[in-house]
Specification:
The protein is mainly alpha-helical and about 100 residues long. The chain has two domains: about 1-50; about 55-99. The protein has helices spanning about 1-15, 20-30, 40-50, 55-90. The chain is elongated, with a radius of gyration of 28 Å.
């Protein structure tokens, strides 16, 4: 009886954490594949990987991208300002140069 209680607790844990739903959806996707893959385990791994949360370093990379975008925008503004100043002193120097 104790082992059944542990099994039931574990089943509820898997259900509550979404594991059963995720596994079920992956198995349904495999079942619905018209061309069954040669390696079912690779199919499951691939589809489970798509359902997993992003790696921990993803947030740091998103922050770095946002920082670099901000720096790029600042450099674009600075470049335009410098071009405008240069045009005041050397109007012919920028002809034919793409912005």
């Amino acid at each position: 009886v104790a082992s059944e209680s542990k099994r039931e607790q574990f089943r509820r844990y898997l259900e509550k954490s979404g594991v059963l739903d995720t596994l079920t959806s992956v198995l349904v996707a495999l079942y619905e594949e018209s061309d069954k893959p040669n390696n079912a385990l690779d199919f499951i791994k691939c589809h489970l990987g798509a359902a997993l949360p992003e790696p921990a370093n993803t947030e740091a990379l998103h922050m770095e991208v946002a920082d670099l975008k901000q720096k790029c925008n600042l450099l674009i503004v600075e470049n335009k300002e410098l071009r405008n100043r240069l045009m005041q002193y050397e109007p012919d120097s920028l002809s034919g140069v793409a912005e």
